[in-house]
Amino acid sequence: MAVDAGRVSSCAGPRRGMARFAPVLPLQRLPETPVGDTPLAVEEYRGVQIGLKLEYLNLGGSFKDRGAYVTVARCAELEFESIVVDSSGNAGVAFALMGRRAGIGVDVFLPRSAPEGKKLLLRILRARLHEVTGDRMAVHAATLDYAGSTRAAYAGHWFNPYFAHGVKTMAYEAAEQMGAIDFVFCPVGAGTVLLGMYTGFSELYAAKAGKTLPCLIAVQAEGYAPVCRRLGVDTSGPGISHLADGIAIAEPPRRDEIAAAVTETGGFGMVVDDGEIARALTWLTARGYVVEPTSAVPLAALFRCVEDGRVPRGSRVLLPLTGSGLKVLSELTEVGGTG
After folding, report:
1. What is the pLDDT of residues 138-182, one digit of tens each?
2. How far apart are alpha carbons 18 and 20 in whole angstroms?
3. By C-alpha distance, which of 77, 90, 87, 121 is closest to 107?
4. pLDDT at 37 over 60
5. Same domain assignment for residues 97 and 182
6. What does pTM read for this prediction?
7. Domain carrying residue 314
8. Is pLDDT of 330 > 60?
9. β-strand partners of 153
10. Quick one: 248 and 136 in the same domain?
11. Which of 120, 146, 161 is the last residue of a domain?
């Protein structure tokens, strides 16, 4: 959809939640749902201002509530009675929650190795679970096979344009909350955070609501870094991340599009290992941000960039904290202990 200055300025009215973004979302009707309007907390690290967008405070505990909100609303407009998604956990929870509110059945395919806390929440939300033995790519293949044999809508977020429109509202809110933003560090698996941020900030820039496009930094976990490889980053390290399960995607189908967005904004790629992720997670937990390990991935990269000078003192950096740690308490205990 075409977004101009008039549509952008119309989002600034008294209406709150995702519904206030009606002028820039491709929907005929936006249900009143308390998703979005997440707080932005400001921290400082070695002279760099960090804006932490607390996406884990959404209803379903992740930024993916935004994309699921728009997708499910569109499926309702098209009169689908059920949808099928593939997920490592958070997307499934988001779709199950939004589907239940809309009266739409949801089938969720996910790895058998997904955190038990996420599986339990999916059952509470009455999603139909399909556990797949294998990695995230195997889950995706199984989902497509199943979707092709049913009358349900396949709504997986890897290819879904409506999902990206939901995620872009993070950029709209952050621009209001922070003003000028120099860098945005994004965890990248399938790329939905980064592509959503790119869409939102590009619309704001085109509508003259933003003076410059922030540099988008694609951060991937060791062993799962095809986008960074495309960006020229050395990915030959021997390790494979076990902490960043939310972005453990070996072959994201939109890797070229993600890399192009990074390049256009003057950004770059970063690969972090589990030691760096654990350090960043500990830093966040010590300050009261109880998030899943994948949420610490961008901060791990920022620490290194501040220390090597790629992010200079005085910079203003946006980091989305994408998912709640309350779904993965066993995993957090393994990283940080209970003492």
Report:
1. 999 999 999 888 888 899 888 889 999 999 999 999 999 999 999
2. 5
3. 87
4. yes
5. no
6. 0.92
7. 15-58+167-336
8. yes
9. 83
10. no
11. 161
